[in-house]
Amino acid sequence: MIQSVPELNPGLRILLGPGPSNVHPRVLKAMSTPLVGHLDPDFLGIMNETMELLRFVFQTDNRLTIPLSGTGSAGMEACLCNLLEPGDEVIIGVNGLFGERMCDVAGRCGAEVQRVEAEWGKILEPEQVGAALKQGKTKLLALVHAETSTGICQPLEEISRLTWEHGALLLVDTVTSLGGCPVTVDRWGIDAAYSGTQKCLSAPPGLAPITLSPRALEVVKRRKQKVQSWYLDLSMVERYWGEERFYHHTAPISMIYALREALRLIQEEGLEEQFARHQRNHLALVAGLKGLGLELSAQKGHRLPMLNAVRIPEGIDDLKIRRYLLHEFGIEIGGGLGPLKGKIWRIGLMGHSSTRNNVLLVLGALEQALRAEGHRLEPGAAVVSALDAYGE
Ligand SMILES: *Cc1c(COP(=O)(O)O)cnc(C)c1O
């Protein structure tokens, strides 16, 4: 006989890692809204509103702008496996974990993958990308806008221009950037972008907003072969979200409710104010960290406001500090991945988690954790520096 399982009761956490971020109570409330059928006229209206709100955050007029069922990686897989066919040439920028993941996915599509690389924590230079584009007949260039594994924000405008010059499509991973810093799909000439709900959009994980330009959609329509994934075949999914409402799979209704509410919150605050808030809290965090003698590791001038990669000084135990923050304060921050494992902490200030209170709390907690480890620090230095940055 199966033993009775206790009521669900995980610890209350302040989520300041690489995602998920904290979810606004209004989003949680929206998720508990009673279900309607996924082809119910009321739900069709809700789908249309959600698409309209997504066009607003992606800053695009693209008709095909929808939340795919699945997490951010499903968005990555959908874009690559719809835009690429076996033998196609694709250039992928690799300077962190997610560029690496794109190479894996594109390889599984049978594409010829050419990597353009930079050290983890550095941007890809437009000249590098330009040189790679000159070498062959590239169909697609794929880049990560906000590399969550390193804290780097990849500049896109110059690279977009080069990509268009060479007649290639531009695919951008905006999982961490969307909602936290400008992502102007139409102005930057991005042909395809995907994101996730649990980073700066501050909904639970489970949907992958994507947008495809008319040019990219043409490429999907003119494929020689069917997309190998039935579930992620965008020409089928498009018919479900389009005028026809042709049944493909059942939309995760409660998740759409959540995303719609999360996007409504962003609309109420305003995109520009949302970006400004992320920047303000980032600068205050950096000032506070400096007060603790800690520095960011990502290339200067290209640091993300929502993901702060903090160099761990010699002699400090990465895991001990993170455990202390979790157990003593209920704060989650992230560790390093790949070559940065044990070398950095990743402090996320994403969406609803990006607040002044959270900045002051994590700084105070970090100071306490370091003191508990025997590091001599001037009490209150971090919080005072952060308050100074806020002008208080
Ligand atoms: C989180 C993340 C992903 C993957 O999203 P999942 O929701 O974990 O599948 C992809 N790219 C970037 C840049 C991310 O930060």
Short description:
The chain has 392 residues and is an alpha/beta fold. The protein is 41% helix and 15% strand.
Layout of helices and strands:
Blueprint: E1 14-15, H1 25-31, H2 41-58, E2 64-69, H3 72-83, E3 89-94, H4 97-108, E4 112-117, H5 126-135, E5 140-144, E6 146-147, E7 152-153, H6 157-165, E8 169-173, E9 192-194, E10 207-212, H7 214-221, H8 234-241, H9 253-269, H10 271-291, E11 307-311, H11 318-329, E12 331-332, E13 334-335, E14 344-348, H12 356-372, H13 381-389
Parallel strand pairs: 1-12, 3-4, 3-5, 5-8, 8-9
Antiparallel strand pairs: 2-10, 6-7, 9-10, 11-14, 13-14
The structure holds pyridoxal-5'-phosphate (PLP).
Summary keywords:
392 residues, alpha/beta, Aspartate Aminotransferase, domain 2, seven-stranded mixed beta sheet, 13 helices, globular
Could you explain the architecture of this structure?
By secondary structure, this protein is α/β, with parallel strands linked by helices. The protein folds into two domains: 244 residues, 3-Layer(aba) Sandwich (Aspartate Aminotransferase, domain 2), CATH 3.40.640; 120 residues, Aspartate Aminotransferase, domain 1. Helix content is 41%, strand content 15%. The protein contains 13 helices and 14 strands. A seven-stranded mixed sheet has the order 2-10-9-8-5-3-4, sandwiched between helices. Strands 11-14-13 form a three-stranded antiparallel sheet, covered by helices on one side. A hairpin with an 8-residue loop joins β13 and β14. The protein starts with 13 loop residues before the first strand and ends with a helix. The mean pLDDT is 97. The site of pyridoxal-5'-phosphate has 14 residues, from α3.
